[in-house]
Amino acid sequence: MTDQLSSDAILVVDDETNFAKGLARLIQKGFPAHPVLVRASAAEALEVLQERPCALLVTDVRMPGQDGFALLEQAITLEPALTVVMLSGHGSVESVVKALKSGAYDFLSKPVDQDVLYRTVSRALDRSALARENRLLRQAAQEPGNRPSLIGESPAMRHLRAETLAVAQNDYTVLILGESGSGKELVARTIHSLSRRGARPMVSLNCTAVPEHILESELFGHVKGAFTGAVKARQGLFMAADGSSLLLDEIGDMPVHVQPKLLRALQEKEVRPVGGSESVRVDARILASTNQRLEARMASGEFREDLYYRLNVLTVRVPSLRERSQDIPLLAMHFLTRTCSELDACRKELTPEAMDYLCSRPWPGNVRELQNFVRRAAVFCSGSFITGMQLRLLDAQVKAPGTGAVGFEPYLSAKERVIDDFTRSYALSLMERCKGNVTHAARMSGLERVSLQKILKRLAIDAAKFRPAGESWEE
């Protein structure tokens, strides 16, 4: 066992010293990459947790002085991302329930079966890594000037978050690949905010947005009189990013004549202003992004091979929205909530049919297209609930400006769809007006109470959701 500092350490706590050491040896054998520490009491364990972060705490329940439950409470207060597994030789249902309710991840009975122990520790370490990753990303999102964290729980997004966190811990150049609108800039900003350079603002340049003849000056600066119009010296973006990060967006479209100078700046870590005779040392971490296939650009002579290999030290690929379609509901609700906040408007919600429509619709523009579509829906769709019919009409207007055409479909299916959308919209408005009182709603609508209840059940509308807090009445 080792006491080296590590956020991946496993802490074993038990007053039975021989058992604790034997358990620690067993864990160390199964998880050699993780330092395993042993302590005999809650007080000693808390001293460790105050000095260093740990990924996993394995503690006995019954110990002299503070017991395992007291240790659990204080340990989670000290390190919210910590995962705790409780041990007991006198396991009971009550003890298990109490441990889980108190925040423990799992409960093991003594003597511990090796296979069960390894499975539990493996899952617990995965849980700690994910919790720590999410906490860092949330902290980055809450810092002034930073964008929201990477949203999504699909396997593709979990992998992307793990990669983002990994590359943020060093200063190597990162090449970020992905389709237009997939979120490459957001990934770059997240990498920067999680890095040691995150305290300083990131500098960015869209290589396609700057006229070719002044791109070199934008990157490296110029001295007074370097060219017509250079009435004074100007600092370039490399110097502006000294001690920070420089994002070169759409690097695949950088003009060929600028590429050798960029290569030299990356190799030598120094820049020479246009018209200058001396180079200046800079410490800027380069993050480059592109939606181009750089291999094809190299084959056509439009991108230098040596620059490609200089940029491609670490690579992060951002998945397209079709590769993580299960994240669409989370993204849509996030964009809708944020848009309503930006508009200082009442909160809106998407009906199940509206969400189904968003999930089934193709998004060639990826997350950016989804965000813009949700923004339009928040602005143009009236009422507190956005329905599937409203989104179809909005989509048709966007695709065919000036027309209300929604395309042709069989008469009966079109009629059924329109009626269903009308019924849902009507029922939602009715529940909102009557504050979830079904009896009052039945009288107002002229429907039999039983009939209205059947409609609400068929449409999965919960009347209780519309009631003011603290109020209830019979259905």
Characterise the protein shown here:
This protein has 475 residues and is of the alpha/beta class. The protein has three domains: 10-135, 3-Layer(aba) Sandwich (Rossmann fold); 155-317, P-loop containing nucleotide triphosphate hydrolases (Rossmann fold); 322-466, Helicase, Ruva Protein, domain 3 (Orthogonal Bundle), CATH 1.10.8. Helices cover 48% and strands 11% of the residues. It is built from 19 helices and 14 strands. The protein has helices spanning 17-30, 42-51, 68-78, 93-101, 114-142, 155-168, 184-194, 212-220, 237-240, 259-268, 294-299, 305-311, 328-342, 352-360, 366-380, 388-399, 411-433, 438-445, 449-458, and strands at residues 10-13, 36-39, 56-60, 83-88, 106-109, 174-177, 203-206, 245-249, 270-271, 280-281, 285-290, 314-317, 349-350, 385-386. Strands 2-1-3-4-5 form a five-stranded parallel β-sheet, with helices on both faces. Strands 7-8-11-6-12 form a five-stranded parallel β-sheet. It has a two-stranded antiparallel sheet with strand order 9-10. The N and C termini lie far apart (63 Å).
- What is the highest CATH level, the class of the largest domain? Alpha Beta
- Structural class of the helices, strands and pairings? alpha/beta
Distance between the termini: 63 Å
CATH homologous superfamily title of the largest domain: P-loop containing nucleotide triphosphate hydrolases
- Percent of residues in helices: 40-55%
Shape: flat
Number of strands: 14
The number of helical elements comes to 19
| Number of domain units | 3
Mean pLDDT: 83
- Low-pLDDT parts are 1-6, 140-148, 400-408
Radius of gyration: 29 Å
Task: Provide the CATH topology of the largest domain.
Answer: Rossmann fold
**In terms of quaternary structure, what is this?**
single chain
Instruction: Outline the biggest β-sheet.
Output: 5 strands, parallel
